[in-house]
Amino acid sequence: MSEKELRKRILCIGAGYVGGPTMAMIAAKCPQHEVTIVDINAERIAAWQTDELPIFEPGLLEVVKQVRDKNLFFSTDIDENIKKADIIFVSVNTPTKTYGEGAGKAADLQFWEKTARNIINAAESDKIIIEKSTLPVRTADAMERILSVNTKGLHFDILSNPEFLAEGSAIKDLEDPDRVLIGSRETESGLKARNEIVDIYANWIPRDKILTSNLWSAELSKLVANAFLAQRISSINSISALCEKTEANVKEVANAIGTDSRISSKFLNASVGFGGSCFKKDILNLVYICESYGLHEVAEYWEQVVSINDYQEKRFVKNMISLMFNTVSGKNIALFGFAFKANTGDTRESPAIYVARHLLNEHANLSITDPKALENAKADLKEHSSSICFTEDPYEAAKNAHAIAILTEWDTYKDLDYEKIFDSMEKPAFIFDGRDILDHEKLFKIGFNVSAIGKPQMKHF
Ligand code: UDX
Ligand code: UDX
After folding, report:
1. pLDDT the model gives residue 136
2. Is residue 38 in contact with ligand 2, taking CB distance under 6 Å?
3. pLDDT of residue 4
4. Using CA atoms, how far apart are residues 20 and 39, in angstroms rounded to an integer?
């Protein structure tokens, strides 16, 4: 085969957290293919072409710079690029529905369906369409129906290739994933399309890590993987509440159970709660699907994972208020971290949003610090901007504060000069560690009253 025949034109619709990094990695690992990313958001596309990328992800800029304008291109011309593409990844967002049937739980598939219709209108040749967005199981069925009614006689193979990358470690996860999953119809044409996608990933991923399955298993596996991960966090968080009542220490418990290789030590960090764009959305979506099949007990079981997470966020703030003599009105509280986890500027579903809003409703004054997420924090709390001070400097945030709450596990918070911070604060000074990352004994000796998730409180009064 000539080089030209081997060259695939790969298109990705949706230049977000998933589409951007994934396509940059494919372009970097497959110089023989041409990769284009399109988006309806012109501002986003423009930002991808500068050194101020629209998302912060360690190592991403380096990869993008290596391939940009060589075999990675960004464009807003969706139709023209659909026309040219052999393979189309779709990673438009699939948020939780906010209206009508299934509101609050089901996935809103309007962007997906609109994209499918765009594809029919613009396409002039057969194509492989890949679901990269997380979608309810059997979405491909609906997509196949929409795409098969084209009057041009075109054939589209729909595949599911869910993305398992985590924010903050996206580049590492893409470069060396635990596995890649590709689901397809098990027809001759479905299997051929599946092999084409396997061959793309095989440019850098060992073939034994490229799993293949039927379409429905691939779609469902993505929801189930996120549900299981979130379930571990809710499990340890539920135990953190019990630890606080019994003087057990949740870190010691996590360590003790985590050394059992059947349980494993990962994802056992108790916290103020899980956030991020995926966990809650995907579990609620799973719950909705179970309900729609009449599996009410299964739905209830998974819904508990979200309920415990809500409970954990509420518990954290309630504890803050109760320890600070049942009122935070007029008090200054410094929030250390606003991102939903460290190494990202993303604040979607961050527990910090709940904590901040609740404290503001109790008439506290907030100062919020975060190395990467302040712009998003400002947007999340825009209705309260007059009672909040935003600063990148944690020392500035803590000045004259009555309390500090650690809400994101940024490494930099571990190494601050807490004596200096203590001296600059109102007394009695409180520290609430929502991520269990600080040296609590040391803080107590400095003079702080310390309350950490899943540990006995340490008070000087
Ligand atoms: C999204 C979903 O949230 C997730 O479920 C899925 O697994 C992958 O896609 P993410 O990349 O984090 O994840 O979303 P986001 O950063 O919002 O990016 C989606 C992009 O699609 C946005 O840039 C948006 O402008 C674009 N988009 C949306 C389109 O180009 N066309 C549309 O019709 C709708
Ligand atoms: C998650 C999945 O890990 C990833 O595979 C999927 O593709 C998308 O959803 P992400 O949301 O980026 O990725 O981050 P993740 O590292 O999973 O953390 C999610 C939330 O759980 C964060 O708020 C994090 O702080 C919290 N968490 C994680 C804990 O509270 N405790 C833990 O032990 C681990």
Report:
1. 83
2. no
3. 57
4. 10
- What separation in Å is there between the alpha carbon of 91 and the centre of ligand 1? 5
Helices (H), 97-149: 110-122, 139-148
Candidate of 134, 135, 233, 312 to mutate for ligand 2, largest count of ligand atoms within 8 Å of Cβ: 233
Q: Which atom of ligand 1 is nearest to the CA of 17?
A: 11
48 C-alpha to center of ligand 1: Å? 14
**Ligand 2 center to 426 CA (angstroms):** 34
Q: Which residue has a Cα nearest atom 3 of ligand 1?
A: 93
Closest CA to 78 of 143, 134, 18, 11: 11
Tens-place pLDDT, residues 411-459: 999 999 999 999 999 999 999 999 999 999 999 999 999 999 999 999 9
Q: Going by CA atoms, what residue is nearest to atom 15 of ligand 2? A: 166
Amino acid at 254: A
- In the residue annotation, 30 being an active-site residue is answered as no
Residue 408 near residue 336 (C-beta atoms within 8 A):
yes
Q: Identify whether the C-beta of residue 97 lies closer than 8 Å to the C-beta of residue 103.
A: yes
The answer on pLDDT for 148 being more than 90 is no
Rg of the chain in Å (alpha carbons): 24
- Answer whether 346's CB lies under 8 Å from 167's CB: yes
**Ligand index nearest the alpha carbon of residue 308:** 2
In angstroms, rounded to a whole number, what is the distance separating the alpha carbons of residues 280 and 227? 9
For ligand 1, residues with CB inside 6 Å are 13-19, 39-41, 44, 91-94, 111, 114-115, 133-134, 163, 277
Please give the sequence-ordered ranges of beta strands (E in DSSP) within 300-420, or none if there are none: 332-336, 365-369, 388-390, 403-406
| First-to-last C-alpha distance (Å) of the chain | 79
The 10s digit of each residue's pLDDT in 35-51 is: 999 999 999 999 999 99
> What pTM, to 2 d.p., does this model score?
0.94
